[in-house]
């Protein structure tokens, strides 16, 4: 029988469209390695981390050993993988928990990318090898209490004082903030928006963790306080002098998020599918009822559709064709789809859906942060709308 007339493969519920066949052997190998790490290291513990609102610092070193920190960057101890391979890693990490993927995204796509793209050679040599190994943790200070979707309204400023810079201001909702050995802080200056590397322990630089979160609990979120922080000229990222600097970093992180959301959705769908086959009602598994099959079919549709979109955008990025507007469509569509899947899965699980014995409520709560950070769904809709109409609604 020729390949043209060969019988199609049997349906696999967890890969309904056979997306595995679209990946290279190397991509599947990277995906499987990260999946095994999540299965062995994250899933047995992440419910406790979420409940206790903590994440072990040594996990960063383990992720460095795994090779996922800054994995899509070239040189300086980074793996130099394709964008698609990085996306697949984000998918598997977020199938474990959004907080774990956030740690990797902030480290690699925000802090490390900022240094890699906009930093001096000395800054790259000083920080990137240690950050790739997980020996040093970074954070990214852009968002402020009154400047989230509009970073141009930031109040943090930096002024020259001889050969030094003095920074003053406040950053909010900063992942890894109190864990970080170095903060990439963006500030307004008389020369445009500039980025600065602020090492932990610098006089005048302190952090405060944000508590009582109901989302992203297996992740440290902090406030950064900069009180007349004096830095040498060598602390400034020399190649960035406008909002293009931080926005380029955000685009890298958003790309990882649009993949990660697929992982969260898949984890919820698989949990609901397994549960529906074993939960008995009226003498038979609930999977036998039409209304539950409709829910499962819709979840499978959204997971597969989001996965195909992520893969297509990954191929575009590897081919140099990906624009920020494409990333906005990916984040908007995939995170909203993941939220719908999580909410539907929670209904399938009934009362069990609200316990940490199952992953669904944890993913559902986490996605309420993911839909907001790195650009809200509203902002990404406006980005796409602007690309469609040629009219910018928020400028």
Reconstruct the topology from this structure.
Blueprint lengths: L24 H18 L3 H7 L5 H9 L16 H14 L1 H21 L2 H12 L5 E4 L15 E5 L2 E12 L6 E8 L2 E8 L5 E5 L11 E12 L11 H35 L1 E2 L2 E2 L4 H29 L5 H25 L11 H11 L6 H13 L6
Parallel strand pairs: 1-4
Antiparallel strand pairs: 2-3, 3-7, 4-5, 6-7, 8-9
Helix pairs in contact: 1-4, 4-5, 4-7, 4-8, 5-6, 5-7, 7-8, 7-9, 7-10, 8-9, 9-10, 9-11
Name the descriptors.
globular, 4-stranded antiparallel beta sheet, 11 helices, 395 residues, 49% helix, 3-stranded mixed beta sheet, alpha+beta, Butyryl-CoA Dehydrogenase, subunit A, domain 2
Task: Give a brief rundown of this model.
The strands form 3 sheets. The chain has a 4-stranded antiparallel sheet with strand order 2-3-7-6, covered by helices on one side. Strands 1-4-5 form a 3-stranded mixed sheet, covered by helices on one side. It has helices spanning 25-42, 46-52, 58-66, 83-96, 98-118, 121-132, 244-278, 290-318, 324-348, 360-370, 377-389; strands spanning 138-141, 157-161, 164-175, 182-189, 192-199, 205-209, 221-232, 280-281, 284-285. It has 3 domains: 11-132, Butyryl-Coa Dehydrogenase, subunit A, domain 1 (Orthogonal Bundle), CATH 1.10.540; 138-242, Beta Barrel (Butyryl-CoA Dehydrogenase, subunit A, domain 2); 245-389, Butyryl-CoA Dehydrogenase, subunit A, domain 3 (Up-down Bundle).
